[in-house]
Hints:
Blueprint: E1 30-34, H1 40-48, E2 53-58, H2 61-74, E3 78-82, H3 85-92, E4 98-104, H4 122-131, E5 132-142, H5 145-156, E6 162-164, H6 183-190, E7 196-202
Parallel strand pairs: 1-2, 1-4, 2-3, 4-5
Antiparallel strand pairs: 5-7, 6-7
Helix pairs in contact: 3-4
Amino acid sequence: MRSRQHVNPLGLGFETFRGTIPTLGDDVIVECEIGCADAQFLFERAARDPSRHYVGIEIRENLVHDVNQRAAATKLPVEAVFCNANLHLDKLFSPGRVSVVHVNFPDPWFKRRHRKRRMVDPALAEHIRTILQPKGQLFFQSDVWAIALDALDTFEAAGDWLRNEAGEWSFWKSGNPFGARSWREANAEETGLDIWRLLYQRL
């Protein structure tokens, strides 16, 4: 079972980018998971379609090391990058380079004084706008209603570059279309928790 070790993304140590920019072939299709943790979701995606390259963004450096070790051992096209996505996501990819962005079960930061630490905010939406290719997809999941509602509000207010595939101000109700589950999604489904999903296309 994955441990949920919280890291304050507003810490001074995360203001400077210290990760490694991924090396991507010109023709390879790229998917990115923001907040990948142990990257279970990406490893399952890679096992289904190893022709793509899967980049996980993670602020916990020890998890980045573990993911890259597992990728080397399995020879699957998964790569983790140590990065504060709210500040540096657009440093990792050229504009329009990513075909799918996944945001799976971001940390909720329930306490009122900690809400500014939540990952999905207008700055992240703007970074996603920069890296996501036309007709690319943005997929979000959470088992926390307040987080899902915040994400819906953020993405609906982001501008006319996104189209909600379920209709304006609506959650996606057709399940996970990507054939892979993070540890958190598997646990939520097995324990009967509701999951709120959003699926957008970049215009």
